[in-house]
Amino acid sequence: MVNELKVVFDRMGIDVWEVIGAASTKPFGFKAFYPGPGLGGHCIPIDPFYLTWKARQYDMPTRFIELAGEINTSMPRYVVTKTTEALNEHSKSLKGSKVLVLGLAYKKDIDDLRESPSIELIELLRQKGAKVDYNDPYIPRTHKQRRHNLRMASKKL
């Protein structure tokens, strides 16, 4: 849900980080959720769809789960669009720009690339002509995956 709010707030000219900061002043019961480039890992982006599959056998719609999947799947493209817009505001083109992706794993402090949105993000940036590197102390080199083969090494900061 927070990824969708990020997109909506951008369109409305509202800073999602200010909204999260304001919400955090609530004296009790606050749990922060932050927008990101999508979801990754071995379970969260995949497992809810087992439930949608089973629910269909009972003629039960699972629109919210499916919509969340669509939104989270679209986030790498959204990040590329926002990156392009930010560069354009400074009279720069994404094509030929050097981009450093910080963190490759699907969450911090691990070496697991399964379903990481950073992989798709790098591929999309490269398709647009960006020169992309990454830094992730837990992933010194990328390895061939089921759908991806980046062949990259982490750059030192």
From TrEMBL:
- Supply one GO molecular-function term: oxidoreductase activity, acting on the CH-OH group of donors, NAD or NADP as acceptor
Q: Cite the Pfam families for this sequence.
A: UDPG_MGDP_dh, UDPG_MGDP_dh_C
> Which residue range or ranges hold the UDP-glucose/GDP-mannose dehydrogenase C-terminal domain?
100-157
Listed GO biological process terms: polysaccharide biosynthetic process
In Swiss-Prot or TrEMBL terms, this protein is called UDP-glucose/GDP-mannose dehydrogenase C-terminal domain-containing protein
Q: Which organism is it from?
A: marine sediment metagenome
